[in-house]
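Following the same procedure, backbone shapes were mapped to integers, as reproduced here:
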Amino acid sequence: MSPQDRQKKEAARAALAEVPKGCWLGVGTGSTTNYFIQLLPKRWVKGAVASSEATAKALKRRGIQVVPMIPSRKLAVYVDGADEADPRLRLIKGGGGALTREKIVATASRKFVCIADGSKWVKRLGRFPVPLEVVPIARHQVAAAVRKMGGRPVWRKGFLTDNGGEVLDVHGLRIADPAKMEKRLEAIPGVVCAGIFGKRKANLLLLGTRNGVRRLRAGSKTR
């Protein structure tokens, strides 16, 4: 196991302590989240809402009940990874293409626990390209609008999300205000979701490092 994978697994293990036994759980998508699913005891939770078909299959293999959503109340916790996280726990997500469902499930949860390895920690978001899920017919129109904002959109060719959308990965955006940029991008006709989590940021970041797992809340700093 590589040092990076070890950090991911330790962050995922630390997240188990944030999950109340017997709760309804939201589960994200990606390599770090896969470690969390592998470590999650099948009788620990009542069931889960998955942010992707791949996650749903992984949960079912663990013997965990998967439901579409819990309409009557918020999920207790949402556990997911990130492609970038800043000191205010604002995130860039969507490298795996599940950004829309991830944002939906995160918003439907009382607490968002982000798990990541140390390479995902940044002082300012934007080194990682911002994924946009777009309605296929609007791809060229959205790309033109993004270029006017200073971004360089790259079509994720041959990829469709679980919703049937396409993905544009936008490089080079200057993200001084993540929530504001998120709002601007999602206001473009044809954009289903932007991979900036500025409004629904994480409540807790469990950051795997070579010196162990750091627990970071909004405004905290690594030492």
In short: The longest strand covers residues 109-117.
